[in-house]
Amino acid sequence: GIQVEQSPPDLILQEGANSTLRCNFSDSVNNLQWFHQNPWGQLINLFYIPSGTKQNGRLSATTVATERYSLLYISSSQTTDSGVYFCADLKAAGNKLTFGGGTRVLVKP
Amino acid sequence: DGGITQSPKYLFRKEGQNVTLSCEQNLNHDAMYWYRQDPGQGLRLIYYSQIVNDFQKGDIAEGYSVSREKKESFPLTVTSAQKNPTAFYLCASSPGGMISGYTFGSGTRLTVV
User: Whole-angstrom Cα distance, residue A83 to residue A32?
Assistant: First the structure.
């Protein structure tokens, strides 16, 4: 099956800083999604982004499907951005998600 | 409000015991899923079900069992055959046949004592 690698594994930011998280895939991706897991374990869907660029407030994401990677941008980070960010590919057969290992983000005040 | 409810939030199990984790959704979603998360790692698929009375094994099904007797419910049993059951378990649902609308529950943290 497809392998999903995320980098960096850990990220410490000062409040207000910008950052970029990366997701690499071993095979073609069709339905890339980004999730945020808060410190209490709740997973929230941030973006469905099979290709192109999307923005939602201070977050934006870009997927270059032909080169098998996606980027998540966090601008003007806030302490509430802390948690783990996952990318995942959704396969249409069974609607199953294959997750990367995540990037753990800590935003310090 | 529509959503997914997992219970209990915390569960302690003695070695050799079976335990059942509850997952209920009122989103009218056809598909439901169970994922396992170990500390510092991503999620791995245990079982999934696309319709009532049908389910398939995921990547790490050994030592687990499920049932799907109702559309709203997809309980997961962690059996004594699961050698390392301590983990965070997340249930999810999706409309099925679509590529968006994935919704997760808040999780159950299982600890073997």
Answer: 20
- Residue A3: predicted pLDDT: 86
Q: Please say if the pLDDT value at position A92 is more than 80.
A: no
Residue A37, pLDDT > 90, answer: yes
In chain A, the residue whose alpha carbon lies closest to the alpha carbon of B36 is A99
Compute φ and ψ for A48, nearest 5 degrees.
Answer: -105, 115
Q: What tens digit of pLDDT does each residue of B55-76 get?
A: 999 999 999 999 999 999 999 9
Residues of chain B found within 8 Å of residue A42, distances taken between Cβ atoms: 104, 106-107
Residues in chain A with CB shorter than 8 Å from the CB of B35 are 97
**Position B25 pLDDT exceeds 90:** yes
Q: Which candidate from B58, B100, B104 shows the least CB-CB separation from A43?
A: B104
Residue A96 phi, psi (nearest 5): -95, 140
